[in-house]
Amino acid sequence: MTGRSPSVGIVGAGMSGLCQAILLRKAGITDITVYEKSHDVGGTWRDNTYPGLACDVPSRFYQFTFATNPDWSKVFSPGAEIFDYFRRTADEYRMRELIRFGVQITDARFDGRRWRLTTDTGQSLAHDFLISATGVLREPRMPAIDGLAEFDGPVMHSARWDHSVDMSGKRVAVIGTGSTGVQLVCGLADSVSRLELYQRSAQWVLPVPNPSYRRWTAPLHHKFPALDALAYNGYDRVFRFAAGALVRPGLRRALVARICRRALQRVRDPQLRRRLTPDYQPGCRRMVFSGGFYEAIQRPNVELVDIGIDHVEARGIVTSDGVRHELDAIVLATGFDAHAFMRPMVLAGPGGLTVDQLWTEGPKAHLGVALPGFPNFFMLMGPHSPVGNYSLTAIAEAQAAHIVGWIQRWRDAEFDTVAPTRRATEEFNASMHEAMPDTVWATGCTSWYLGADGLPELWPWTPDTYTRLMSAAPNPDHYELGHYVSEVATKESV
Ligand code: NA7
């Protein structure tokens, strides 16, 4: 130990930012500040509060291994319970004392020694390391629909649910058929008088049931905490196995397709079944897990509208066949800008190179966590992280531990600055592009997985490959290690 004490700034107190701060503290790093633009921790679980919300990864696998929760109510627990879990975890690990709520970082520049941050109120701050933990699905995508602003009733994006609006007995439109749209249909169908689901593309639905745990399950998990680990590891194996179907053609993929096609048989009306049948392979878009969707869509008060929206008027939606749909409320389940990453925050390396300039051909990072030309900067859930086929908490833990490893080496004075080389980053991204055609995500569909070049921005191999890379010693040839006294020693210009 040299006694160097790194100062670390983390942007975002969502799931991954919390994970990073906790692991840093566990490693003995204490000078940590987490900047959170909102009023609470929890990120996506704080922002999303719509009826029917759940995570599509089982709760016993969507939790930190160091803070397991014996009390999950369901296999896929409701969003509010997940939010509560992250809040409790933040309290348990005394994270709130590290977090500056209501502070948005607008600009971050590396001056050769430190990251200089500017907040939305013009305050200046500095850290040795900067970690972006700004989340994957953070920026709601608002659809460009003519006349939407003319609608007389409430219009809300699913991620900005307006709880002052009472939907019961109302005529409600849900636009979008991703996981959110499907969950909303199940969450609203009971209480509204009429629900119209506006479908632009049909969606494969894996009919996964969501049972509540028995009364004795939680006490049992309290008494035998090893059961938490057992359940986590069991799901981990299932996900790793299933991921094989997504990244390679073969039997597993065919089996998933068969299950999905069979599930569609639950739709009794052949016309409706045909309209709900996607024209792409199951798994190409993120699979929707729902045990109740096909039942909900067949309820008498629920209608599938698969004619395009022409425009919106004061009293409702007009579809392109000229039909007027009178409505009381419109819900936009139209997804998120999955390619925003840390933006709109402006990030610039030592020569003034910004992330926008680095990413003119699309987001590229080394191992999903670091950028060439951006020393002492790391990202959680950066480009090509395996967000399409695994639990995000598991990825966050693997990435956060990897980043802690680098910061510990700085603490031990092995280097002052570290960044991946441009060559290593290019080669890594080229090998991913080569592997991409084998994945189901590249078999011909549109989705939030695809980048501007039309290729998936996902991890084209199994999660095992990723977690192995994260835990292995970094290849020294892939990084530029520099010292403050001189210019950053570069192996090649960036
Ligand atoms: P998704 O999966 O991106 O789904 C968005 C849906 O909204 C999708 O069906 C879109 O149709 C539809 N959409 C978007 N714009 C429009 C317009 N202008 N008109 C009609 N329909 C539109 O977002 P989710 O929030 O459901 O899920 C995101 C992730 O959260 C999910 O994958 C899980 O990981 C959790 P399209 O398919 O583009 O034709």
What would you note in describing this structure?
The protein is an alpha/beta fold and 494 residues long. It is 29% helix and 17% strand. The strands form six sheets. A five-stranded parallel β-sheet has the order 3-2-1-7-19, with helices on one face. α1 runs parallel beside α11 and α6 packs across α7. The radius of gyration is 23 Å and the shape is globular. The C terminus is likely disordered. Bound molecules: ligand NA7. Ligand NA7 binds next to α4.
Which strand order does the major sheet show?
A: 3-2-1-7-19
Mean pLDDT: 95
Per DSSP, the total helix count is 13
Molecular shape: globular
Q: Tell me what portion of residues adopts beta-strand conformation.
A: 15-25%
> Biggest β-sheet: count, sense, barrel?
5 strands, parallel
- The number of E-state strands comes to 21
Poorly predicted runs are 486-494
Termini separation (Å)?
A: 32 Å
User: Which molecules other than protein and nucleic acid are bound?
Assistant: ligand NA7
Overall helicity: 25-40%
> In angstroms, what is the radius of gyration?
23 Å
Helical/strand content category = alpha/beta
Task: Break the fold down into its secondary structure elements and pairings.
Elements: E1 8-11, H1 15-26, E2 32-36, H2 44-47, H3 79-92, E3 99-101, E4 105-110, E5 115-119, E6 124-127, E7 129-132, E8 155-157, E9 171-175, H4 179-188, E10 194-198, E11 205-206, H5 217-223, H6 226-247, H7 251-264, H8 270-275, E12 288-289, H9 293-297, E13 302-305, E14 309-313, E15 316-319, E16 324-326, E17 329-332, E18 346-348, H10 355-358, E19 377-379, H11 392-411, E20 417-420, H12 422-435, H13 463-471, E21 479-482
Parallel strand pairs: 1-2, 1-7, 2-3, 4-18, 7-19, 8-17, 9-10, 9-17, 10-13, 11-12
Antiparallel strand pairs: 4-5, 5-6, 14-15, 15-16, 20-21
